Automatic annotation (TrEMBL):
<feature type="domain" description="Glycosyl transferase family 1">
    <location>
        <begin position="218"/>
        <end position="377"/>
    </location>
</feature>
<dbReference type="Pfam" id="PF00534">
    <property type="entry name" value="Glycos_transf_1"/>
</dbReference>
<protein>
    <recommendedName>
        <fullName>Glycosyl transferase family 1 domain-containing protein</fullName>
    </recommendedName>
</protein>
<dbReference type="InterPro" id="IPR050194">
    <property type="entry name" value="Glycosyltransferase_grp1"/>
</dbReference>
<dbReference type="GO" id="GO:0016758">
    <property type="term" value="F:hexosyltransferase activity"/>
</dbReference>
<dbReference type="InterPro" id="IPR001296">
    <property type="entry name" value="Glyco_trans_1"/>
</dbReference>
Length: 397
């Protein structure tokens, strides 16, 4: 069996879930003995397999970044509008590789590619007899759109959460593929809600790199409580609810610092600045630190992901593997990996009262932190990438 794995338009050398997921999945497929072809934007020398780098030259990349900057600053285009252009551009490159016979696809080939980024590539693969598998890294596009539209309206954010053209591309892809890879019960339910056939869905969670994320007891954990959030700092991640909970805890006299390990979204800046001032009035420090979250996990006390929607949330498993208790909303797909009140807490999305209460319990109870952290670490061992990949391929075969 041959597997062609397409990473979409994201640069695999940039930090984030795409790099981690795709690298670990490809490594595991090779280790399991499959013939693997990896098509991605960016060079790599980690996995020994057939590899096609579809990135542009440095000059073309520079010109593209310049055009994108002008589109944002002069013509008011959003990051999502620009991302669609990238989706289409690299999708076309991959499709050409298949159509020209450079990337071999036949009836013995499974093509795994990302939703929204693979319309022409799926068409090409099907024309050559390949089995097409859509990696649904988001909820069903209509569920995704509804969730974001609601929170944007609530927070008076004027930008459009998802361009219509992206939703349309996603729906076209979904209609044509042979299988959809659902990474959580939330994704599974969102597809059923919109009439997708259950027998065409493969249910398989993501894994975690157990060699990178380890349970290291740090001396700094005993000094000051560090609440860790990892991800883009924006509305869909529910950061406004986290801020409100922190403010309430500050008003109650709790002492801690908040670590936001991620990039601040431009349309979330007014909300961030407002809460930063409010939290400062309660002597609560906010550490905004984009980059590799390894140190944040190592030095953290517990982890919070209060997302309005999250198809999975790989950062939850990373935090668990690092020995942290985790607090997640019930709209985080990785809640499937959490045992409520054993290795953390699951709260109803938007319920700031419960979020505040659970955070307060962990701040006040170091023994609970230790016990739940140990359980998180134990549970994470069941999500090695090799076992997850093996499970998925068994489903496909």
């Amino acid at each position: 069996m041959r597997v062609v794995y397409y990473s979409g338009s994201y640069d695999i050398n940039s930090l984030g879930a795409t790099r981690t997921i795709d690298l670990m999945m490809v490594k595991s497929l090779v280790e399991l003995g499959y013939e693997v072809c990896w098509v991605a934007r960016g060079a790599q020398d980690i996995v020994e397999c057939e590899f096609w780098d579809i990135s542009s030259s440095r000059l073309k990349s520079f010109i593209s970044r310049l055009i994108n900057k002008l589109d944002r600053e002069l013509f008011g285009k959003s990051i999502n509008d620009i991302a669609i252009k990238e989706f289409i551009k690299y999708d076309g490159k991959f499709a050409k590789l298949i159509n020209r016979g450079l990337v071999k696809v036949d009836s013995n080939t499974i093509v795994i590619a990302r939703n929204g980024m693979s319309l022409e590539s799926f068409k090409a693969a099907k024309n050559h007899g390949g089995v097409t598998v859509l990696h649904s890294q988001w909820l069903h596009p209509l569920s995704h759109k509804n969730a974001l539209t609601s929170v944007y309206k609530k927070l008076n954010i004027n930008s459009k959460p998802i361009p219509l053209s992206r939703t349309q591309r996603q729906l076209e892809e979904i209609a044509m593929v042979d299988k959809v890879w659902s990474i959580s019960s939330l994704v599974f339910e969102s597809y059923l809600e919109h009439g997708f056939q259950e027998d065409k869905i493969i249910n398989c969670p993501l894994g975690v790199d157990l060699d990178k994320y380890k349970y290291i007891k740090s001396d700094s954990k005993s000094k000051k409580v560090s609440i860790v959030f990892v991800g883009n700092v924006n509305a869909e991640k529910g950061v406004h609810d986290l801020f409100e909970a922190c403010y309430r805890l500050g008003c109650a006299g709790k002492e801690f610092k908040l670590v936001l390990n991620g990039a601040l979204a431009p349309d979330f800046r007014p909300i961030f600045d407002c809460y930063k001032a409010k939290l400062a009035s309660r002597s609560i420090e906010i550490d905004l630190c984009p980059g590799d979250p390894l140190d944040s996990y190592t030095n953290g006390t517990f982890f919070v992901l209060p997302s309005i929607h999250e198809s999975f949330g790989l950062v939850v498993l990373e935090a668990m593997a690092s020995g942290l208790p985790v607090i997640v909303s019930n709209k985080v797909g990785a809640k499937d990996c959490v045992i409520d009140k054993k290795n953390g807490f699951i709260f109803d999305v938007g319920n700031v009262d419960d979020l505040t209460q659970y955070m307060s319990e962990l701040i006040d109870n170091p023994k609970m932190v230790l016990s739940m952290g140990n359980e998180s670490y134990r549970l994470s061992k069941g999500y090695s990438w090799l076992e997850i990949t093996k499970k998925m391929m068994e489903e496909l075969n």
